[in-house]
Specification:
- By secondary structure, this protein is α/β, with parallel strands linked by helices.
- It has two domains: 134 residues, Rossmann fold (3-Layer(aba) Sandwich), CATH 3.40.50.1000; 73 residues.
- Helices cover 47% and strands 14% of the residues.
- Strands 3-2-1-4-5-6 form a six-stranded parallel β-sheet.
- Helix 1 packs antiparallel against helix 2, helix 2 crosses helix 3 and helix 4 runs parallel beside helix 6.
- It is globular.
- The protein starts with 11 loop residues before the first strand and ends with a helix.
Length: 221
């Protein structure tokens, strides 16, 4: 007689922010293009391509890559600080006003008392907290994590601090960095698909177009 499969009971959800809770990926793409528009179309194309292939990676790491591997010139601390300041100026207001991913706000409003909810983002911590506060959703999250903390470390800390098992946690992301953070900690990963199908083509994971039916999906695990 076959043993019955033990049902997983999700206790916590970790959300990436851009592209998972808020439709803001294009905002970041346009900001990178704007910052380097004087370098010419070819350079901008390479920068945008790298950004889109590495969503979920901090802007600090991206700027370092752009200078080392595309512009081929040194990046000093003052220039990096100025780039980050200008990038923030370009994106914050737009991200604050960007639409929610379909179903995201309803999920938070209806389920954040049932699940422990967290954000794990590559956006700088202070900026992320400001955006979440202005969007008036801070109260739905146990904690909000941004860079420079790595996503793999964020998941590990959540498991440890809140005494959660990997099967207790669902991580919703739209980038390889999200998948890798969940996998490194053996958490359940669900990919939000939106013009990023190629990233997850060969990945063995659940895939959703939006968050409308996420609660029902979690209930079936």
């Amino acid at each position: 007689m076959l043993a019955s499969r033990q049902r997983i009971m999700i206790k916590a959800i970790i959300f990436d922010f851009d592209g998972v809770l808020v439709e803001s990926v294009d905002i970041k793409t346009k900001a990178f293009a704007k910052l380097f528009e004087t370098e010419g179309e070819e350079v901008v194309g390479k920068i945008v391509d790298y950004h889109l292939r590495h969503t979920g990676v901090s802007r600090f790491e991206k700027f370092e890559h752009f200078y080392s591997n595309i512009l081929n010139r040194p990046l000093n601390e003052e220039t990096l600080k100025n780039l980050c300041k200008r990038f923030s100026e370009l994106v914050v207001d737009e991200v604050v006003n960007a639409p929610f991913v379909n179903g995201a706000l309803e999920l938070l409003e209806n389920q954040s008392k049932l699940f422990k909810c967290f954000i794990a983002s590559a956006t700088p911590q202070d900026e992320l907290e400001e955006i979440v506060r202005h969007r008036d959703i801070s109260n739905h999250f146990i904690r909000i994590y941004g860079s420079p903390k790595k996503k793999t470390d964020i998941v590990r800390d959540i498991l440890s601090i809140h005494k959660l098992l990997p099967d207790d946690v669902a991580y919703i992301g739209d980038a390889m960095s999200d998948y890798e953070a969940a996998r490194a900690n053996s958490a359940i990963f669900i990919a939000r698909i939106n013009d990023n199908e190629s990233i997850f083509d060969n990945m063995d994971c659940l895939k959703v177009k939006d968050l409308v039916n996420l609660k029902a999906i979690l209930d079936t695990l």
